Amino acid sequence: MTDHRFLSSEEHRDLRINTGASAELGDGVMAAMTVPHEFRQVQAHYPIVFRRDAETGSYVALALFGFTEGENLFVNDGKWDTRYQPLAHSIQPFLIGRPSQESGESQVHVDMDHPRISTDGEGMRVFDDDGSMTPYLENIVNKLGMLHDSYQASGAFYEAMKRYDLIEPFTLEVPLKDGSKHSLVGFATIHEEKLQALTGDELADLHKDGHLMPVFMVLASMSHFTDLIARKNARIDIG
């Protein structure tokens, strides 16, 4: 269930957010959406893959946290074991909302049913006593703006990938030290052979529009599958 409301100092003066890390707080997810604008930061920690929407045929990029639904191998002892979280995950329980009038500006909304909403008086304050935004909320608002703008701009990236047929499905077999195997299916990545076959003019076209660097970041991120397997094996050792 969700309960999205327009965030206001009048209604949410005493609102606090639990910023810990746990499955119970919403971190028990296998992946989170990411956008080309942040691929450089994301690829430093996570594999970046694409998933195709069966109804629309469009792609979305995901930062992988694990191999199975509900598995996040980056949360340990109540903390994220990385220096960066994808924007779409780090802004929870906040989101961009639309006013009743389509021509109006975007608004900050909050999901009051999200598990990060504090009910015990603990957590990060959203507003000060005088109703001003706290530094925590200011940071969230900045992230929301970046995510909104980057998502709107990502359409051009996927159009370029379609134009040059650069996204291909892949399957990954993941053997683990206990003898079990996971098959990662339903995802896609950059088609390296087709990328290498592009002409100089085609590469220049991608570079001119700012799409070439995100492509390289996706390819670079694939090395983190080795790290992800190591994290999975470490969990097996712990039991």
UniProtKB/TrEMBL annotation:
UniProt superkingdom: Bacteria
Pfam families assigned: SapC (PF07277)
Cited InterPro entries: SapC
Protein name according to UniProt: Peptide transport system permease protein sapC
Species whose genome carries this gene: Altererythrobacter epoxidivorans
